[in-house]
Every structure is written in C-alpha cells, then in structure tokens.
Design a protein that fits this description.
283 residues; Nucleotidyltransferase, domain 5; five-stranded mixed β-sheet; two-stranded antiparallel ribbon; Actin; ATP-binding; ATPase_NBD
C-alpha cells in the first residue's frame, strides 16, 4: 500500500493541473483493457484506499464489455485470484446487469412471487466513456452475433462540446478545456426532439436558455466566465446525427438499434422491440 502513489478520476485530473510531477494514463481504450499493469494498480487503489477492505474476505462481482475476448477475462481472473487472493469471482456482461436491475425492481413492486429471469428480455444501449454497444438480451442471455458497436461515446460528446466552445470563441484555458467540457456535458446537456426548434428557442430567449460557467485560471488565478448555449443540445445530438461530428460514420443510433433487433432470431424480435434499456453511466 505504500506504493500507491497515484490517483484516479477527478483526483488525478486535479493533481495533473496543480503539479507537473504526474502523467495521465488510461488502461482502457474503446472498452478494452490494453494495459494490465495499470489496471492492476487501479484495482489496488479501489480495493485498499477507497473500499478499505481485505479482498481475501470478500467475493467480487466485476462487469465486462459485451465484446470482450476470453483472453481478457482470463487475465482478469488471474489478477484477482493470484494477486488479491479473492475467494470467489463472478464476471458478468454490463448489459445483462443493467437489464436485470430494471426487471428486479419492476418485479419487486408488481409480483414478488414471479421469476424475473424468465422475462429478462430486451435491448440494452450501453453508452460508456470510451465505447458504445447495442446488446440484445433474451431470457438473460446475450445474443452475441447480434451485438452492434456504435463508434461514438461519452468522450466524443466531451470533445464535441470542447470543439463547439472553441469555434464560438469562448476563452477557455487550454489546460482546462476537456475538464470544463466534461462538466458542461454532465450538468447542462440534454437531448431534444426537434433541433430547429431548440435553435429558435435559444435565439429568442437567450437569457432563459444560455447558461454561464465561472471559474479561475489555474496558472494565473484570473477569474473568467464563458457562455454555454447551443452546446447544451448539440453535444448529445451526435448520437442521432453523427455526421455533424464525424464524416466517417453516418448511421444514427436509432437505426443501428433497429438493425440489431432485425439481426436477432425472428421469434425474439417482438419481445426485443418492447423493452429498451439505456445504460449511460459513462456518458
């Protein structure tokens, strides 16, 4: 534990801005672990410093990407059993847990004697920070051949918001650009049904819809304020009109969901169309 001289998440970003002694690394890219040494240190920090528990005394439940390889799960099991000596480990697909949590709640308030796993069928749209997937689940089992990947994720929304602020001429400090864009995304962004109406609303009543963000430049200590306008609805709009952000992919998310259901076995399509679960923790 004496070697845990590193930080995670917001704490890592604040240390990076205030000191030049640290470098920023991410062990996961596009939903896949590509740096297992850093991932092992990440788990050490979570277990010992944040959870403050002895891993040898607890069973562990870990989530995994729906497109993860068997080798990736083997590496996860090897680290958890050989490094942390956990007595038991269960690795589940994120989409199945998302859908099961929703059904468990519905069953608990409707019929406590029924089995939620018998009806656990639906399409899960899993939008994370680095990867997005559309996963069909039938009776608790993932139809692997019908999983669709969406190339845009939460980090792309952050990048797009940052790009829009720069193009509009907002004076955002470069070292704080991504951090501010991420907070704008989390606090102010929303989806709209008609993008043209949203533009008209913002232009007609700017005092009502335009938000203001005030902060202090970390290096000079000078306060500054930026306006947050069209970015509020244009950021999430890349899921429905991806061409406004990238010319490499033009298939909107609803169309990809339809393709996912249509590629599933024909006897499961009606049930899949009935239930759509959105897991957007990383967005």
């Amino acid at each position: 534990m004496a070697d845990l001289d590193f930080f995670i998440g917001d704490e890592a970003l604040s240390r990076l801005r205030s000191s030049g002694l640290y470098t920023l690394r991410s062990p996961i890219h596009n939903g896949q672990v590509d740096d297992w040494d850093t991932m092992e240190r990440f788990w050490q920090q979570c277990i010992f410093n944040y959870l403050r528990c002895n891993p040898e005394e607890h069973y562990f439940l870990l989530t995994d990407s729906p497109v993860s390889t068997p080798e990736s799960r083997e590496c996860t099991g090897e680290i958890m059993f050989e490094t942390f000596n956990v007595p038991g480990l269960y690795i589940s697909v994120q989409s199945v847990l998302s859908l099961s949590a929703g059904y468990a709640y519905l069953k608990s308030i409707s019929d406590e004697n029924s089995d939620p796993s018998s009806d656990m069928t639906g399409v899960v749209v899993d939008i994370g920070d680095g990867a997005s997937h559309i996963v069909p689940v039938v009776n608790g089992y993932v139809i692997g051949s019908s999983i669709k990947s969406f190339p845009l994720s939460g980090s792309d929304v952050t990048q797009f918001v940052s790009q829009l602020l720069q193009e509009r001429g907002e004076l955002v400090p470069p070292e704080d650009s991504l951090d501010i864009s991420r907070k704008v995304k989390e606090m102010y962004c929303y989806t709209c049904s008609d993008i043209v109406k949203e533009f008209k609303k913002h232009d007609k009543k700017p005092d009502k819809y335009i938000k203001h963000w005030s902060a202090i430049k970390p290096k000079t200590g000078v306060p500054y304020t930026i306006d947050i306008g069209y970015e509020r609805f244009l950021g999430p709009e890349i899921f429905f009109k991806p061409e406004i952000y990238s010319a490499d992919f033009a298939t909107p998310l609803p169309q990809l969901i339809d393709r996912c259901v249509q590629s599933a076995p024909i006897d499961t399509r009606r049930a899949l169309y009935k239930v759509l679960s959105l897991n957007s923790a990383g967005t």
